[in-house]
Amino acid sequence: MMRPLLIQAFKDAVDQIGTEMVRMPITRWNESVFRFMYSQAVTKLQKDVKQFFECEKIDLVLRHESKGAFMEFKFYIHSPKYDALYGNVSGWKGYPSDKNVSEFNKCVKELRKRDTPPNILKLVALFYADPVRTNGRKYDGDYGDRSAIEHKLKLHRLASCGPFELPDGSDSCNARLYEVIT
Fold first, then answer.
1. What's the rounded mean pLDDT across residues 48-58?
2. Could you tell me the pTM of the whole model?
């Protein structure tokens, strides 16, 4: 019963993110906010699921009766870097790069090598957003349907949300929930 609960919580969390982005620009979000939204969605669906944050270098550990899940969260956006004194954009803090792909690959490999009983799921929750109008590299090229990331890393997609646009139409967002195949 754990897998359907976690899939529904993922969908609910992404829906909530879409709703909240009307009030809060995406540039103020990060993977901790994504994890919070997800944890909140789990609690709304099943209050007695125990949740442990940053547990032995795992973003979120969930336990319910004899079942559980180890979860990693990845939140990738094109985020500007600001000058602290004047608030002017001074470059880019986050953008698609080989470093992001390497971090994602490492996260999957670390989950895969953890020795766990079969009642523990190993999951990766991914959210990414790309500017609608750009000729540069996009996260969708690294993680989208045409990227073959699922095949390369032996991931099973449990849920997919998007693409959906931000309220101002500036970015296209996607979210995926993967099970790491061991």
1. 95
2. 0.93
